[in-house]
Amino acid sequence: MTTTQEPTEGLDGLPYNVFAKACPSRGTLEHVTGRWGGLTLGALYEGSLRFNELRRRVDGVSEKMLSQTLHALERDGLVHREAQPTNPPRVDYELTPLGRGVAERLLTLIHFVEGQMDDVLEARRRYDETRGTG
User: Fold this and answer.
1) Contact 14, 24 (CB under 8 A)
2) Which residues, at least 6 apart from 96, have a Cβ–Cβ distance to it below 8 Å?
3) Burial of 78: CB neighbours in 10 Å, binned 0-12, 13-18, 19+
4) What residues contact residue 55 under an 8 Å CB cut-off, 6+ apart?
5) HSE on the CB side for 53, CA within 13 Å?
6) Each residue's pLDDT tens digit, 40-82
7) Is 40 helix (H, G, I), strand (E, B) or coil?
8) Is 1 exposed, middle or buried (0-12, 13-18, 19+ CB in 10 A)?
9) At a CB cut-off of 8 Å and minimum separation 6, what does 117 contact?
């Protein structure tokens, strides 16, 4: 692949290969799986939210980071931003059909991780105990 716009065939025959450094799919994967991207997509799966509603739902995200995350997800076609011509302005965010498909898959992973937390916490305890950390 000579530019970031050209596809590089992946192992499964798809035209893009996220493991290739210059493949554009890597950036989208980073937006989706980054600290705030996955949580934002998961929160929007429940339905349309205004910016401050979304910020409250994604506990801990700063206004700046949420704004950057939403811009990236909107650019990737995963989130739709609708500004209402009201006073004061009202902006709603919702998933696109593509974003909904991504969010469904993320939520499957999120629910799996949540369901395995007892095992994870026990593994952490054992790890810390054997290394004298924690």
Assistant:
1) no
2) 77, 78, 79, 80
3) buried
4) 61, 63, 66
5) 12
6) 999 999 999 999 999 999 999 999 999 999 999 999 999 999 9
7) helix
8) middle
9) none
